[in-house]
Design goal:
Elements lengths: L1 H27 L20 H4 L6 H22 L1 H22 L10 H18 L2 H14 L15 H17 L18
């Protein structure tokens, strides 16, 4: 874990700094970057799936995402390593963005890192059970206890919040836990289940 700490911390602090810089540019240019949000079912908008995850509608929106993104991202990067973490985040961004593009309300514009937050939540929640690692199971239980209430944000609502981005981000995070699960070293037999010696 120690060898993973510095890259993980640098990555997450750099990511957060980038988000705040982008919002400062957006504010200074009269919200010009908001056009990179996702407008559903417009073919040309598919290219905005990735940039939309790095943009926000004001500093309040960004501030609400900053702490959970930093904490969940740090835990995920420390436990998974930066390379696997980047793969997890990429899958979550695509899943969340495509879900928004397919299902969001007509004429809406969606942006923000909350889909990634929900994805990291889902990833950490199930990763330990998939990989059968007691420490990661414990981390999943703690993450569930601390952030479990956000699950309500993945349910349909009329509050102006993109529950679609949250829901598909969560699904993407769970999927990523399967796709990027740790491989057993070659020559290591899987533990036998139900075998009588």
């Amino acid at each position: 874990m120690t060898s993973r700490a510095k890259p993980a911390i640098c990555l997450m602090l750099g990511w957060i700094a980038l988000l705040w810089l982008l919002e400062a540019v957006d504010t200074a240019t009269g919200n010009a970057l908001d056009s990179f949000g996702i407008q559903p079912r417009e073919p040309a908008e598919l290219v905005d799936i990735v940039p939309a995850a790095f943009l926000h509608f004001g500093f309040g929106h960004l501030a609400a995402n900053t702490l959970p993104l930093l904490l969940l991202g740090l835990v995920a990067a420390l436990r998974s390593g930066v390379r696997r973490f980047v793969g997890v985040v990429a899958l979550v961004i695509v899943a969340s963005g495509l879900g928004v593009w397919l299902t969001a309300a007509p004429h809406s514009n969606t942006a923000g890192a909350s889909g990634v937050v929900f994805g990291l939540f889902g990833y950490l929640l199930v990763r330990g059970f998939i990989e059968r690692k007691p420490l990661d199971i414990a981390i999943g239980v703690i993450v569930g206890a601390v952030y479990g209430s956000i699950i309500w944000g993945a349910l349909p609502s009329d509050s102006g919040i993109s529950w679609q981005g949250h829901l598909f981000g969560l699904i993407g995070g769970v999927l990523a836990a399967f796709v990027f699960r740790a491989r057993m070293p070659s020559g290591t037999a899987a533990p036998a289940v139900g075998r009588v010696p």
